[in-house]
Amino acid sequence: MTTTNEFSQLVDELRAAFLEEGVLRTCDDRKKQLLSLRNMLTENLDEICDALYKDLHKSKIESTIYEIDYVVGEIDQTLSDLKSWMAPKKVSRYILQATDTAFIQKEPLGTVLIIGAWNFPIQLLLCPLVGALAGGNTVVLKPSEVAKNTEQVVAKLVPKYLSPKVVRVVCADAQETGELLKNQFDHIFYTGSSIVGKIIMRAASEFLTPVTLELGGKSPVIVDEGVDLPTVARRIVWAKLLNAGQICVTPDYVLNIDFCRIITQRQFDRLSSLLKSTRGKISFGGNTDSEQFYIQPTIITDVDGEDSLMGEEIFGPILPIIQAESLEKAIDLINKRPKPLSLYVFSDEQKHVDKVLKGTSSGSVCVNDVMMQMSLDTLPFGGVGNSGMGRYHGKYTFDTFTHEKAVLHRSSGFEKLLFMRYPPYTESKLSWARRFLAKWRSPI
Amino acid sequence: MSLHQLVETQRQYYKTGEPTKLSHRREQLLKLRKILKEDHDTLTEGVYKDLRRDKRTTFGLEVGNAIVEIDYMLENLEEWSKPVYAEKTLTTALDTPMIYKEAKGVVLLISPWNYPVSMVVLPLIPIIAAGNTVIIKPSEISAHTSEALDTLFSKNFDRKFLAVVQGGVQETTELLKERFDHIIYTGATTVGRIVMSAAAKHLTPVTLELGGKCPVVIESDADIETSAKRVAWGKWLNCGQTCLAPDYIITTAALKPRVVAGLRKAIIDFYGTEIKASKDYSRIIGQRHFDRIKSLLDRTNATVLFKNGEPDRDDLFIPPVILDAKPEDVFMEDEIFGPILPIITVSGFDEAIEFIRDGEKPLAAYLFTRDQKKIQRFLNETSSGGVTINDVLMHITVDTIPFGGVGNSGMGRYRGKFGFDTFTHEKAVLKRGFFGESLLDARYPPQSDAKFKQLKKITGSRVGVPKIVKKLFPALPYIIFGVIMGFIAQRYGGHYLH
């Protein structure tokens, strides 16, 4: 537990390290920290997986593939491309800048705050960290206090591998996080619920701190007529039950044998009450065990748009199925609700797919599968509207934590060329200026 | 119609999909272009009434560049709104990953009074180009221009697509209670906080173009007279009421006299010896702002190095003033936004950099030097929205670099494609087939060691397209073409070459 003063001191130290000592200024400095982070993950795989299992009953395979390997993959890509990402970007010039050089300089932002979530406590905390370090920023890491064991492991391992001048871990509950937010950061990256997202943005506005908010929403799955149902079903089930439906991009669906438990009593009670209050018909499952925090994978049919299950994001292994009369009606129903983080459509008809793409808005879309869009780091991952703002993965993370400074380097010569901009303004000067402006965008 | 109804009407219209149609965007941009080309007199007349800025100057500063921006947008509209195909890796080898461009929805544009035409039109262009609807809240302080914009726009655009809402603080507060899909605000830092805070209630992304104290560092190896002339131009344009204006100068004691001499000469060259009489010298926007600057003049402890004329409240005239100031001076507290230019004396370049770093990140920073090493240090060790070396303001004229702030000077950016991107939602799309189901069979439970090994092989390392192929590939068609042409030329054109 850290006090308010300790928070301020911590942030000040990180800022001083950034400003005065210039930690992470060079590509090599940044690569060194990233390699260390990589080692932290690969050398402590068992301990991390153990913590994830204690928190979420996550199988070792899920933990390795979706948490640890994912971040390692991001680190590897970053290490390979960092030099080119950091290089100033030259831009095309036009006749007005014939004697100048124009480019975009990549700058770190300063000291940033990353707040992780409990459902993928490693990936969602460390993936942004990779980009923050790559961008040259010092970082305050706040792992989710709900995934207690993982929080402890992170707090223990990070100081061993990453310099305290570069990254510091803060363990804080909701109230303490409020105190933490009273400090000035140069960017805040938050993954979690829309409700808290609003609080974070509000707090950030005090300091005009830009934010990236990776939030949630009800990710709909549209299953078109005529699709290969067994394959579709398999894909949806896999996705739904990954993490027991507790992923921001989870669709809402059917059963399986191997899956994990629900994270806390509070979440369990919420899901049980949803099951009780639905007006739909439970076609499969519906059993719960409060001792084990176990909710059986449950399919509920005959659900309409107003059902209790259609309120907030389910975030559990319950899958309501709504019967829509037509594709248009399905699109309408989706558009009545806030823009989700992901949207899925299963169809063999290109026209129908295009209709959905054009007719709906979401952070991302996956056609004929679920969640796979996240595995490609050349696609930005982020929300829109209620599901969030900003995006990351791959180079997008680097860009999130970078300020692109516009630079124009003019020569001190050729002063005569600029005669028309100086007062006193005469008709002749003005007509020259207009002529020049018209030719402005002629490339050279 | 109430404000809420207006927003809802626009939202319904956006949902019909009309504003996102390319033909619609093109049509609206052309309408805007027509207004600027044919009715600019109405607009520049309004600006003259508000700021006493010559109509032809306003055309050059605010209208001409907007027309160029519209043409740029029209030229690239189709290209920029097309989906962009993303790079694939082994796990997605048989799929189509792409970024689909979407409009965001209903945008709120709040503009300031200092460039009352361009600060509406320049953001408006990409808002329309990206397929959004828009509500414009122009500054009530530049009332004449706002009225002119309202008249012209309501005549030409349907309110369900583009509406002007006039009013002051109260109307803006009411407007900010509504839900927008993006808000762009240009103005003061203090109001920027309020806008972002209001936006937080609806999780609305914001672009804030704020201000700051833009420093100018003049080094001994620069052409002092030209440097001073350029600084003077940027400073007293619009009577110092430009967000990018050089706020204060940092230089050494040795250089100061030459800098001041250069500035003095430039001022006289520009405005004559009786500056108040020059029709090229603008006025302060209003009495509240006049009083603010006058009060600073009354309270300053700095030495006056140059002053031509006396402040005149009725005429809203404040003369150009050059001061020899200390860092604690009242003029060094906030953005000046007026025709007063303090000079801060330092011992050398290191101290100049330190001084800038001690303050908040400004919208722009300027350096006059020929020394490449100093330029590199300046770029690396100071942070600002943008930088111009050996001139002031000019980086905003390059539409292939972004215009925006950082830290206290703002967030987000626009101009050219950056504007288009700001008001676009880039939706990530992955199209998969049903073919190749076996490739990813390993992801399905029940888990086994064999499956685990297979998955790890695919996901454990990022297998992308080899770099050498990536480098050559774009050029490959040209290489092949060249080879073929060479072959043909050799075979059939050979005898023509003799």
From TrEMBL, chain A:
Domain Aldehyde dehydrogenase: 26-252, 262-407
Assigned keywords, A-Z: Oxidoreductase
BP-aspect Gene Ontology terms: aldehyde metabolic process
Gene Ontology MF terms: aldehyde dehydrogenase (NAD+) activity
Superkingdom classification of source: Eukaryota
GO cellular component entries: cytoplasm
Keyword Transferase: no
A Pfam family of this chain: Aldedh
Active site (record annotation): 214, 248
SUPFAM superfamilies, per the entry: ALDH-like (SSF53720)
Entry's family note: Belongs to the aldehyde dehydrogenase family.
Protein name per UniProt: Aldehyde dehydrogenase
Species, as recorded: Acrobeloides nanus
UniProtKB/TrEMBL annotation, chain B:
Presence of the UniProt keyword Transmembrane in the record: yes
Similarity comment text for this entry: Belongs to the aldehyde dehydrogenase family.
Active site: 209, 243
Pfam family, one: Aldedh
One GO term of the biological process aspect: aldehyde metabolic process
Claim: NAD is one of the keywords in the record: yes
GO CC annotations, alphabetized: cytoplasm
Protein's UniProt name: Aldehyde dehydrogenase
